[in-house]
Amino acid sequence: MSERVEASVAEGENTIKERHIGAMWELEQKLDQSMDEEANKLKNMYRENGLSTLMLLRLSFQSLGIVYGDLGTSPLYVFYNTFPDGIKDSEDVIGALSLIIYSLLLIPLIKYVFIVCKANDNGQGGTLAIYSLLCRHAKVNLIPNQQRSDEDLTTYSRTLVAEGSFAAKTKKWLESRHSKKRALLVVVLLGTCMMIGDGILTPAISVYKTFFLTVLSATGGIRVNNPKMSSDIVVLVSVILLIGLFSMQHYGTDKVGWLFAPIVLIWFLFIGATGIYNICKHDTSVLKAFSPKYIYLYFKRRGRDGWISLGGILLSITGTEALFADISYFPLQAIQLAFTLFVFPCLLLAYCGQAAFLVNHKEHYKDAFYASIPESVYWPMLIVATGAAFVGSQATISGTYSIIKQAVSHGCFPRVKIVHTSKKFLGQIYCPDINWILMIGCITVTASFKNQTEIGNAYGKITTRWRKRRRRKMSWRTAVVVVMLVTTLLTVLTMLVVWRCHWIFVLVFTILSLLVELSYFSAVILKINEGGWVPLIIAAFSLLVMFVWNYVTVKKYEFEVHSRVSMSWILGLGPSLGLVRVPGIGLVHTELASGVPHIFSHFITNLPAIHSVVVFVCVKNLPVYTVPEEERFLVKRIGPKTFRMFRCVARYGYKDLHRKDDRFEDKLFENLFSFIQNETMMESDSNYSNSVYPVNYTQESRDELISNNNNNHDSNDNNMVMFSSMVDYMDTMSFSQNYTVEEEEEEEDELEFLKTCKESGVVHIMGNTVVKARKGSLLPKKIAIDYVYAFLAKICRENSAILHVPHETLLNVGQVYYL
Predict the structure, then answer these.
(1) For the K+ potassium transporter C-terminal domain, which residue ranges apply (predicted)?
(2) Strand partners, 430
(3) Is the pTM of this model over 0.85?
């Protein structure tokens, strides 16, 4: 009998406890409501303006100087890298030409221009743009800061998948485990880091090649009195050219495009016309290379040597990986138009013309390009070739800016300064910090050529050391193949999850892409010991930086989520700590879109005073390319009106920038004032603010909560804070209920009160957080957090600098996070 009574009592206690906990949860929801309603109000029919035909042609022209420089200068050295030891059979030239033709057809034209480029995120390209697209359609983002209100953005485009479909199964498979999400991010970062490595190596090689072509061009080339030239001079001039190239980047893509586009345009016209001339003059039969059977005959005849020569064929499509990353600078239609109608035909004519020349002049395998140029246009061609080689690296430089901007927005790279260079096209950006890092990296790589290259005489005799450098140039294209493989994987996932393509189409795309790219990868990986390690070292270093930064960023966010305190704790601070409301407005910056950050509770615990008006500001980056200005800010009241607390969420896409002239603070207050006006108009009951908090608690309930908490020895610090907030709130409910209707009427108008507080002063309260590894953490974790991340956090830009917060209005609150 006693056991039944005890069981009944225990059941009753549990019921009471659950009722109280449920009541407190309901209270929390009323105190700090979601932003869904506000998001629906702000949603509009935002659309980007279309492009006129004239503007499309203009951008197509400019894209030549930015996107196609590297791809367009490949004819300078492809055949020499394919046949480094000479040409034994004319049919080998036909086979190599056939490989070049179908490589250009399958990879740049079909795969990238017409398939991969369509996987752009509203005009943003690169591996991280595809990752953003996947994050919107599947829950694979490692930072769970997305809310339902974010999906109401007009730019948050996504499609719903039917249950049981192959797309739904793929999505479920990706979301099933945290390890799969982490693996997906690592793959994305690997492709991004390889692109960064390419951005360092390509300018170094291109500029070095520029000066080399000036002093060593081939038979009929420049005659210099001194048949030997010191490598010191070549390196010195190359470094000067590199400094000049990177120094002009701050003028912006628009101006650089106008400067470089005419050079590349003339270059393509020259190589196309020269190709037609050589085909007609030397051998029209090379056009049979359009038949794929010559690829089979080529490998059958050359065997292993033919397979290794793929490393040289690969050079014909280098620069393609930058094409997708540079989509953010130009519309997709402009890039498709320029490549399909101009670049692709000119490249085919150039390669066919060189092949026609080599069929009858096998001895010119080293200098096929210059030897095949008609004598009457040789000097103009040499000048244009030198200029084209100089601008050939612009595609990778611009692409690096774009992917770094995306990486910063995804929390995968330290904060750097990013500048808009065009008022018309927001995708055209410039990163000063990254620009100088790239320049230093390029100069370092160029200086490494010293004492490894000796330029031979002016007749084109290449020494053994130059041949070693040529092998290195071919082998570092490992980075290019890895970027292509990563892009293929992400595009396949996009086809399955986003586009929901038929599995047969996906299978055909996957087989063809992997067949070509894995063949190239197997060829260049054989040269890993001849310089192929250079991009791998650069990529490994970049991957370490990006992975550590993302890892600690995720851990910090998780720590803040678990350490946040309830709003009832804030409401209970009035009589318990004797808080003073000082004149002014306090903008408390936090990464949390809900709840009170631990940094604020730490601040008011040590300094028991808060401003008359408190606004929790969350600047949040979303996996979208942009957020329209009309939808950027979401404002919500927190708690009763008498507490003057608000929450403001400022949402940004990865194409959006925090510019100094954005008037962030003014726009925040404009939206806050607008919210109050709308709320006043919609409010029908003068007691609305108090009527939504009808909670009654007895002393018995309070004592019971204290007793239950004392019996729970396993609760963590966060639970203790939450429990304390419940008790404090019950103790102070009478404090908030003492505001009578008469006192409300005596208060001055809230809008005028806010304006008065703004005039009194605005203070930005930001966390100056030091992150350390917990005691007992593994050594790799300690190194990553205590040393690598600490160093990166020290040298990167502060949040206050990114948001352009005036130093005189900044208040840093320091604390230590143990992760």
Answers:
(1) 583-818
(2) 419
(3) no
